[in-house]
Write a structure and sequence with these properties.
By secondary structure, the chain is mainly alpha-helical. 69% of the residues lie in helices and 0% in strands. The chain contains ten helices and no strands.
Length: 216
């Protein structure tokens, strides 16, 4: 039996706040150029192979302009991670649970799993970026704090989803499941590139099977 979200549960999904950009169009474009160039550079050289001077030169922007928006290279990585995590959180928050009122639970869980763990995030350039950002979170305390907040959001969102979908599990048990599923999702970034498609498939199968247990 699916039910409507409570005010407290709805607040979980209101924690997604986009990064504030400068108000002037020209300034926003410059910030976006800095961010895009940094993604390009770290994808080629890794986290240790880039400097703000290199970013400025490659972006065709004076180094003083880079520092106007970002005091150091870690702050650029922070902005990139904010955008990367916000995309995941927005997709999670936008899942249309109400559309599944007459659908089977099997389809509901399958579609939720696919929506949250999207294929395109684990392949190609986006996979490389995810690997770099997770590595950066293990290196820089500020990024780790941001990543841990994202983890809490993800776990809270799963608790809300399972409650609304009709699970009778208590919140503590759901949170343990959420923690495990979060770590399971991130293992895809750790497997070799030549088996990533298989890893995505098995992650989805395992995720659905584990969520089904919450309704027994």
């Amino acid at each position: 039996m699916k039910r409507a979200a409570t005010k407290k549960e709805r607040s979980v999904f209101q924690r997604v706040t986009p990064r504030k950009l400068p108000s002037r169009a020209g300034s926003r474009a410059r910030v976006e150029k800095i961010v895009a160039t940094t993604i390009e550079v770290i994808s080629q050289k890794g986290l240790d192979g880039f400097t703000t001077n290199e970013i400025a030169k490659k972006a065709g922007i004076p180094i003083g302009s880079v520092y106007q928006y970002f005091p150091n290279k870690q702050s650029i990585l922070y902005a990139i991670m904010q955008d990367w995590l916000a995309e995941i959180e927005e997709r999670t928050a936008a899942f249309p649970l109400e559309k599944y009122a007459k659908s089977s639970r099997k389809r509901l869980l399958e579609d939720f799993s696919k929506s949250v763990g999207t294929y395109d995030r684990y392949t190609g350039k986006r996979r490389k970026l995810g690997q770099l950002l997770i590595s950066a979170a293990a290196t820089y305390p500020e990024l780790n704090e941001l990543y841990q907040k994202h983890k809490e959001f993800t776990i809270d969102a799963l608790v809300v989803f399972l409650h609304q979908a009709g699970s009778n599990w208590d919140a503590e048990r759901m949170r343990k499941l959420g923690h495990y599923l979060f770590e399971l999702r991130n293992t895809i970034y750790q497997v070799p590139d030549d088996v990533v498609e298989e890893a995505i498939y098995f992650r989805e199968v395992a995720t659905i099977a584990l969520m089904k247990d919450a309704f027994k």
